[in-house]
Design a protein that fits this description.
The chain is built from 6 helices and no strands. By secondary structure, the protein is mostly helical. The protein has 2 domains: 43 residues, no CATH class; 107 residues, Helix Hairpins (Orthogonal Bundle), CATH 1.10.287.3610.
Length: 171
């Protein structure tokens, strides 16, 4: 039934369908005739027919992470502040680019962490498994390493001119 729906859908139909956070993200059941299961994500496994649809899915992922993941919001705000401070302090373009890259890396790893946690939760359902814990902890550790690196990089680039600005304002 899912395959028949997928084959009968046209790219125009897919393009006109809207992604919203209200879509059912529950796990599929073995009984496909289950009336409680919404059928809004039947085509989620299909490759996006156009580049525009691919970008739409990517933005949906960013939106989901920003709305649901506190740490993603924190990384976004801190990265924006670090870049803004770099512009305010008149850092060289390459130094601002380095801050942008490290901030972007942290945010990308936070997105991957969210994806890994979702897939692990989907797989183990409501049960505990040591390997699930290891996968989630390692993904979180990757975010931590990248965040510490970003703090070190931003600190080494921002603190010297910031201290110089404060000293000149005090004198």
């Amino acid at each position: 039934m899912v395959l028949q729906k997928a084959q009968s859908s046209t790219p125009q139909m897919l393009a006109s369908s809207s992604l919203s956070m209200s879509q059912d993200l529950t796990m599929p059941t073995q009984n496909q005739s289950d009336p409680l299961r919404k059928r809004t994500r039947d085509l989620a496994w299909k490759i996006a027919p156009t580049l525009l649809i691919s970008f739409k899915y990517a933005w949906a992922g960013l939106y989901y992470a920003f709305i649901t993941q506190r740490n993603f919001r924190i990384h976004t705000i801190i990265g924006t502040l670090a870049i803004s401070l770099g512009v305010f302090l008149h850092l060289k373009p390459v130094e601002i680019a380095v801050i942008c890259l490290t901030s972007g890396l942290v945010m990308a790893l936070e997105l991957l962490n969210t994806a890994i946690e979702s897939v692990v939760d989907l797989t183990v359902k409501q049960s505990y498994h040591d390997l699930a814990k290891i996968a989630k902890d390692c993904a979180a550790g990757a975010v931590l390493v990248s965040a510490m690196t970003a703090v070190f990089v931003a600190g080494s680039l921002l603190l010297p001119p910031l201290f110089a600005l404060i000293q000149s304002a005090v004198q």
